[in-house]
Write a structure and sequence with these properties.
Layout lengths: L39 H10 L2 H5 L18 H18 L4 H10 L8 H12 L7 H12 L13 H9 L18 H9 L10 H25 L4 H4 L3 H13 L5 H31 L4 H5 L10 H19 L2 H23 L18 H13 L3 H11 L8
Helix pairs in contact: 1-4, 3-4, 3-9, 4-7, 4-9, 5-15, 5-16, 6-8, 9-12, 9-14, 11-12, 15-16, 15-17
């Protein structure tokens, strides 16, 4: 994909007409005075970084359970990498970098311990009570569960940041109110009754670059962690022509390079090629759509910041490789089975005796709630756990805890 370098915003100051305007924000659910030193989106980003939920990402799994080693990605390191790519894309496209970074930093807040395994297990036990969705849980955290401010629950983010959190992967509803990917999770519908996030439209371009940055980051870094673990080999990467080409380029330029440096040279080229592809596609789409405001981006009826067809095919091939070689590897499946059991056991224990949730803010009022309301509080408590805390409390409540190493 060819890039028009003359149109790139390398200075970080100039915003395009289609960028989100921090001084023209639709505001916050609870009105607040503005800051003399920071834009509204800067304040959002800073609030996100100072949350308990952000700190907990340090001990939540990305792919490899934390006891496997200190050098594997956690949710926190993954999130920081996503934010770095999102900011780079936002700068190149002359967007609001703070909004793009904020959406990237908050996008994984709702993830459970033990990665997608924990989410799948929690969703299964929550099916009778409306299910569990990590995106909806992220919204609950920033609008309800973070309890820091005297005037409101949550952290009172701007409409634009909340929209980006909820819709960074695209619209959730059709214009006539039907869910595009099944029923819209109840927590999202409940919040939109108070503060309409316009679920039938696309999100801002800042949110779109955060979403594609997530794909770029986890594809690349799951390869890096897979090589580090030994579950992936360089020979396996040859299955994907794009990766084979990157490896040939590195071998030709640096013959005999040690494995760790070779891996990094490959993955950094992977990130560069994917980022440049997104920039090129976005420039073409912007020339076609010609949006004159962030509202025009939302009404465009298409994703503007995305991969080219060729890179999208590469993206699918990489995901297929990771799925077959890592995510479904027998050793990972054994660990996933144990992690799922921990989440399921804890859910049953807390539903049976909510007082076991000693630090949950609602524990003294939970006994009189309906089963559905109780289950939602239990899922809030479980989803907030780190891997290490979930393993520890399971060991306190049960005679035998699965070995996740």
């Amino acid at each position: 994909m060819t890039i028009d370098t003359r149109a790139l915003g390398f200075g970080g100051g100039e915003r395009a007409v289609y960028a989100s305007d921090p001084w023209g924000s639709r505001g916050r659910l609870f009105p607040e005075d503005g800051s003399l030193t920071r834009s509204e989106f800067q304040r959002d980003r800073d609030r996100i970084v100072h949350t308990t939920a952000f700190r907990r990402l340090k001990h939540k799994t990305q792919v490899f359970i934390s006891p496997d080693g200190d050098h594997y990605r956690t949710r926190l390191t993954h999130t920081i990498e996503v934010a770095q790519i999102a900011r780079a894309l936002a700068r190149a496209l002359k967007l609001d970098e703070d909004l793009a970074e904020g959406v990237a930093l908050v996008h994984d807040f709702g993830h459970t311990p033990f990665g997608h395994t924990g989410e799948d297990a929690l969703d299964e036990v929550m099916k009778p009570f409306g299910g569990f969705d990590h995106n909806a849980q992220s919204l609950r955290i920033v609008t309800k569960l973070e309890r820091r401010y005297a005037d409101f629950d949550g952290i009172n983010l701007t409409w634009e940041s909340l929209e980006g959190l909820v819709k960074h992967n695209g619209p959730l509803m059709t214009p006539d109110g039907k869910g595009l990917h099944g029923p819209v999770p109840q927590p999202i519908r409940d919040y939109c009754q108070l503060h309409d996030l316009e679920l039938a439209s696309f999100a801002s371009l800042e949110a779109q670059v955060a979403a594609i940055s997530d794909d770029i980051a986890y594809n690349t870094h799951d390869i890096d962690d897979g090589l580090r673990s030994g579950l992936l080999t360089f020979d396996m990467l040859e299955e994907v022509p794009f990766l084979a080409g990157m490896m040939k380029e590195v071998r030709d330029r640096y013959p005999g390079l040690e494995a760790s440096r070779f891996a990094y040279e490959v993955t950094r080229r992977q990130i560069t090629h994917m980022v440049e592809d997104v920039i090129g596609v976005a420039q073409v789409n912007l020339d076609t759509v010609r949006p004159h405001s962030a509202a025009d981006v939302r009404a465009a009826g298409q994703v503007i910041a995305t991969f080219s067809p060729e890179m999208a095919q590469t993206d699918r091939a990489i995901k297929k490789l990771l799925f077959s070689r890592i995510y479904r590897h027998p050793e990972i499946m054994r660990i996933r089975e144990g992690a799922s059991r921990i989440v399921t056991d804890l859910f049953a224990a807390y539903m049976n005796d909510p007082t076991l949730m000693r630090s949950h803010y609602w524990v003294n009022h939970i006994s009189g709630l309906t089963d559905a309301a109780r289950a939602r509080h239990v899922s809030d408590y479980l989803a907030g756990m780190t891997d290490t805390y979930a393993i520890r409390v399971h060991g306190e409540l049960f005679d035998q805890t699965p070995d996740l190493r």
